[in-house]
Design a protein that fits this description.
The protein has one domain. It is built from 16 helices and 12 strands. It has a 4-stranded antiparallel β-sheet with strand order 3-4-9-6, with helices on both faces. Strands 1-2 form a two-stranded antiparallel sheet. A two-stranded parallel sheet has the order 5-12. The radius of gyration is 22 Å and the shape is elongated.
C-alpha cells in the first residue's frame, strides 16, 4: 500500500492498470522517475549558456523549470514515463539501407521517418490521457498532467532515470532491445511512487553518430549544437538556412535520421503496432519536383494531421529550394536538372523574400548542362 496525501493507494492495482493499459494503448515500455533532477541542472544551464538552443527561445525562457517537475506542475511527486515505437508496420528488414539509398539520390525528397505518418503529438497525448484514465479507474481520482514533447520537460533525462534506456552520444535515448526509433511521453502525478531502476549505458567507444552527422552538430559526446542540426534547421528555424550549412543538408527537407541510421543499436529497432505511423501516400517515395509543385492549399491538404504542417508552406518551400539547389550541384540526368531549374524559375516571381533568396541560391548551384537536343 502507498500513502498519497490523505488516502491510501494500492500500488499493485496501479501497476496492473499501467501494464494492461500501456500494452493495449500501444506503449512499448513504462517506467517511473523521481522528481529530483538537480544533477541535470548544470548541464542544462551550460547548454543554454553556449547558445546551443539556437532560436528556440522558449527553452531559455523556461530555464530550470525544465529540470523541476514540481515547479512546472505543483503537487507532482513522481513521473510515469512511456515509450512508443514509431517505425511503420511495413518497414522492411533492410530499412536503414533503404534510407541511405534515398539519401544518395539527389532528386528524391527525404522526410524523417517519424514524420511520414500521423502527428505523434496527437497520438501520444490522446493515449497518455487514456492511460491516466485507466489508472484512475483502478485507484480512484488523482492529480496528473500528460506531456509529449509539448512543454518544458526533460524527457530523455526522465526516461533514462526510469530505466527506458540511456542517453546516447547523439543525446537521444537508446534501448538495447529497441534502438532509438521511439517517442517518449510522461504523466506527471501527485503519487510518490517507487522509481524503476535505471539502466547502464552501452555506447562504449562507438562514435558512429558523431562521425555521421552531416553538419557536425554533435560537437562532443552527449552535446548537440541545435544551430547546426538539420532537424532544427528544417523544422524549428524560421529564418534563412545558414549559407555554410546548405550543401550539407543534401535532399533532407524535413528532419534528419542519419545519427540513428548509423547507430548499431538500431538493428533492434521495433515496428509500431499502430496504424497511425504508417507512411502516408505523398511521403512514400516523393521527388523534390513533386513536392515543389504543391500549392499552399495542396500542402495543407496533404499535411493535415501530420507534424509537417506546423512549419508552414513558406518554410516547406525554403527547405525544398535548398534540396533542389543541392540536386543541381550533383550529377543528374540533364532532363531532370532542366526540370528542376525550370520549376525554380517559374516560382521565383511570386515567391516570398525568404523563399526567393533560397531559390536564387539554388539556381546559382546549377552545373553546366549540355545543350538540349
Amino acid at each position: 500500500m502507498h500513502q498519497a496525501g490523505s488516502r491510501t493507494v494500492e500500488v499493485d492495482a496501479l501497476w496492473r492498470a499501467l501494464r494492461a493499459g500501456s500494452k493495449e494503448l500501444g506503449f512499448s515500455q513504462i517506467g517511473v522517475a523521481g522528481i529530483d533532477l538537480s544533477s541535470a541542472e548544470p548541464g542544462l544551464l551550460a547548454w543554454l549558456a553556449a547558445g546551443f538552443h539556437g532560436g528556440m527561445d522558449y527553452m531559455a525562457a523556461h530555464g530550470l523549470k525544465r529540470a523541476r517537475p514540481a515547479e512546472l506542475v505543483p503537487g507532482t511527486a513522481s513521473v510515469i514515463t512511456v515509450r512508443m515505437d514509431y517505425l511503420p508496420r511495413d518497414t522492411p528488414p533492410d530499412w536503414r539501407a533503404v534510407e541511405f539509398a534515398r539519401l544518395a539520390q539527389p532528386a528524391q525528397a527525404q522526410v524523417s521517418i517519424y514524420a511520414r505518418g500521423r502527428d505523434y503529438h496527437k497520438v501520444l497525448r490522446q493515449r497518455l490521457q487514456k492511460l491516466a484514465d485507466r489508472i484512475a479507474e483502478a485507484i480512484g481520482p488523482f492529480g496528473h498532467r500528460v506531456f509529449t514533447d509539448s512543454a518544458p520537460v526533460l524527457e530523455a533525462e526522465l526516461a533514462s532515470r526510469s530505466g527506458l534506456g540511456w542517453r546516447g552520444k547523439h543525446t537521444l535515448l537508446l534501448s538495447r532491445d529497441a534502438g532509438s526509433t521511439f517517442f517518449l511521453g510522461e504523466i506527471y502525478v501527485d503519487l510518490a511512487l517507487e522509481p524503476t531502476e535505471p539502466t547502464s549505458a552501452h555506447c562504449g567507444s562507438c562514435s558512429a553518430c558523431l562521425d555521421a552527422c552531416p553538419t557536425g552538430a554533435i560537437v562532443a559526446p552527449h552535446r548537440l549544437d541545435a544551430r547546426r542540426c538539420i532537424s532544427y534547421l528544417t523544422i524549428e528555424h524560421d529564418g534563412p538556412i545558414p549559407m555554410d550549412l546548405r550543401a550539407s543538408i543534401g535532399n533532407r527537407i524535413y528532419g534528419c535520421d542519419d545519427c540513428q541510421l548509423v547507430c548499431p543499436w538500431n538493428r533492434h529497432a521495433r515496428r509500431s503496432a499502430l496504424p497511425d505511423f504508417d507512411v502516408r501516400g505523398p511521403f512514400a517515395a516523393p521527388t523534390l519536383l513533386q513536392l515543389w509543385a504543391w500549392s499552399e492549399a495542396e500542402f495543407l491538404r496533404h499535411t493535415e494531421g501530420s507534424p509537417i504542417r506546423r512549419i508552414g508552406h513558406a518554410r516547406w518551400q525554403r527547405n525544398l529550394a535548398v534540396a533542389m539547389g543541392n540536386a543541381l550541384r550533383a550529377p543528374l540526368e540533364a532532363e531532370t536538372a532542366r526540370a528542376i531549374e525550370a520549376a525554380l524559375r517559374e516560382r521565383l516571381p511570386q515567391a516570398s523574400p525568404l523563399v526567393r533568396e533560397h531559390i536564387e541560391w539554388a539556381l546559382a548551384q546549377r552545373r553546366a548542362l549540355p545543350a538540349a537536343a
